[in-house]
Amino acid sequence: MTEPGNPALHRMLMDVPVRVEVVLGEVRLTMEELSALTPGEVLTLEKQTGEPVDIYVSGRLIARGKLVVADGELGVTLTEIVDARTVN
């Protein structure tokens, strides 16, 4: 990565919050099932560790990765940066 031409601008941009989403799957519940959920309850999603997932930043697909477990925590390892020119 090249050094920015304006270090102050670079520092300012590094503090801008962005929303990062990793799509693990979806679950369909009836309203009855939804209202019966309790804090801490676990819902089974479609993806498991080692499976590919899509990674979005501010609503745009930017990468793909795979789910991993490290030190008992669920994480994502990047495997591909998506070429924005090929994404609809």
Short note summarizing the structure:
The protein has helices spanning 7-14, 31-35; strands at residues 20-23, 52-57, 60-70, 73-81. It has 88 residues and is of the alpha+beta class. The longest helix is centred in the N-terminal third of the chain and has 8 residues, at 7-14.
Task: Walk me through this protein's architecture.
The chain has 88 residues and is of the alpha+beta class. It is built from two helices and four strands; from the N terminus they run H-E-H-E-E-E. A four-stranded antiparallel sheet has the order 1-2-3-4, with no helix packed on it. A hairpin with a 2-residue loop joins strand 3 and strand 4. The longest helix is centred in the first third of the chain and has 8 residues, at 7-14. The protein is extended, with a radius of gyration of 18 Å.
Number of H- or I-type helical stretches: 2
Q: Biggest β-sheet, characterized?
A: 4 strands, antiparallel
The arrangement of helices and strands along the chain is HEHEEE
Radius of gyration: 18 Å
Proportion of beta-strand residues = 25-35%
Low-confidence stretches: none
Alpha-beta classification: alpha+beta
Intertermini distance: 27 Å
- What's the count of strands? 4
Strand order of the largest sheet: 1-2-3-4
Shape: extended
